[in-house]
Amino acid sequence: MSESQLAAADTTPDGRPLGGTLMEMKNITLRFGGVVAIKDISFDIREGEIRAIIGPNGAGKSSMLNVINGFYHPQEGEIWYRGARRKAMKPYQIAKLGIARTFQNIALFKGMSTLDNIMTGRFTHMNASLFSQILWHGKAAREENENREKVERIIDFLEIQSIRKTPVGRLPYGLQKRVELGRALVAEPSLLLLDEPMAGMNVEEKEDMSRFILDVNEEFGTTIALIEHDMGVVMDISDRVVVLDYGRKIGDGTPDEVRGNQAVIDAYLGVPHDD
Amino acid sequence: MSPEFLYTIEVIINGLMTGVMYALVALGFVLIFKSSGIFNYAQGVMALFAAMTLVGFQTGQIPFSHLINAVLGTSVHHFGWHIPSFVAILMTLLVMIAFAWLVERYVLSHLVNQEPIILFMATIGLAYFMEGFGDLMWGADIKKLDVGIPSGGSLWIEDLTIKWAAEGTTFYGWYIDKLDITAAIVAIILVITLTLFSQYTATGRALRAVADDHQAALSVGISLRAIWVIVWSIAGAVALVAGIMWGAKSGVQFSLSLIALKALPVLMLGGFTSIPGAIVGGLIIGVGEKLFEYSIGPMIGGATENWFAYVLALVFLVFRPQGLFGDRIIERV
Ligand SMILES: Nc1ncnc2c1ncn2[C@@H]1O[C@H](COP(=O)(O)OP(=O)(O)O)[C@@H](O)[C@H]1O
Ligand SMILES: [Mg+2]
Q1: What is the pLDDT of residues B209-235, one digit of tens each?
Q2: Which among B197, B205, B215 has the least Cβ separation from residue A120?
Q3: Cα four-point dihedral sign B196, B202, B204, B210
Q4: A33 touches ligand 1 (CB under 6 Å)
Q5: Structural domains present in chain A
Q6: What is the DSSP track for B234-250?
Q7: What is the DSSP string of A143-161?
Q8: ipTM for the assembly
């Protein structure tokens, strides 16, 4: 605890003070049969920062996000969240703790409209009983209206008013990514996990998405952990970067520190990739 | 209008009403299949069980009386009271919800991530278990179900339509059973309610979300297990409605569970994942089999209603394997 208090005095590269530790992964090891996807990795996520996770394909980045949101359960290690050790939990329980996410391969509800997709993001904030929902009365009706307002605000923020009623399966890829971000954002998460939010986008779409991520971080103060391949983007928007390679951590620090780290250069930056 | 024409219309109307009943049973299948990928073989038995339980409650039957008598040497059978239909229906609904919870807790939760065929077999086991359990609880005798739904031909419709025939022809008016009319109205209300529920409530959206993508649903905080209990409860309620209508029509007995067999061609036609498909499929089969029996039946010895639906569905399968509204199945390579 005292360590994180001390560290809280640190600042981000652009001079903003870094908050206390929100999440701490301690000596995480995750195996799939013989494959070791994550090997004894420790790192922390500080309140209010944008934390990037980078590394070549198969490095274990997605697996790490899946550990954080409970899809995968590590065989070894501890996960600390808000100063307490988190016991093994189901993903839906972890969502209730305020951790929202997007997926590397978009996981939207394809048959539902943009509006309905984003509405599902409010699920953890809905407490009305099933009975009250069936009667569409009292608490349920009030909650529907309140949540609807929050959803509309996110829709405005992401500039997707024109596709509110469109089934998301029909939207182009870039917009689907944006809707998925909206669904995660509307939960008002304390920690937002983004798995390759800009993969497969053109330059313009990437710029839009970068701007949204920065705005979310600045306006809502949301802590973000994101995986990204585009080094330019990572260097631009992240406060601190952790670098993985073959399931191990090979670097951790500010973008500048990471850029200068020889192991990182060898393992990742030196390797040409065609994304 | 010629009597010929009027009779044809009558056949179509009766077909539509039978179709509504088929659609109702098919709906129960679709709800469960969409949300959990399980083909619930027990849907028909659930309707039978619900109807038996309803009659048992209504007539004040003592559950497991055969068992009690065999063990204790007593000869109890009824409490000697009668419970009003409405209360008995609510009580049966609670039983179906409890059943849904038990199925999730003791069967489905142990089979998460199993192959669909394993889940299918589990529901076959469930069907036989429920059938036996129902017999043990309420007895295997044929029961009369009467919840006060009017039955018999509607005189009003008969009187009205008799005047439509052309002067000098013989026409006795349309025979439309009041029970069928009631069943159609109830089914329509049920479908509208379910649609509104799934469109405009948080839980309804969660149901659709789970049907669409399990991982994404989990990531927004939806518990799959809670949703499965709800889905099975709704399927139980649908089974109850089907059991009441079918039971009132032809008595509560084992053959009631075979209405599930009528749902199969409906599902082949409408697709396993589409609620509109189940409804339209049910109507097409209802009308199709009645019209076929009316027009072609007499030439080939009748009783075509037993097999017509399957032939229609098979012919259809050849041309559109994913059903009317089902998602096109594209093999990933
Ligand atoms: N569900 C899984 N089952 C088996 N192996 C997996 C699973 N998920 C990830 N892996 C393996 O873990 C390693 C890391 O994968 P991943 O975390 O997806 O990498 P990244 O996101 O960095 O590209 C890979 O070798 C991958 O094959
Ligand atoms: Mg990945």
Answers
A1: 998 899 999 999 999 999 999 999 999
A2: B205
A3: positive
A4: no
A5: 51-71+90-268 (3.40.50.300)
A6: HHHHHHHHHHHHHHHHH
A7: HHHHHHHHHHHHHHHTT-G
A8: 0.90
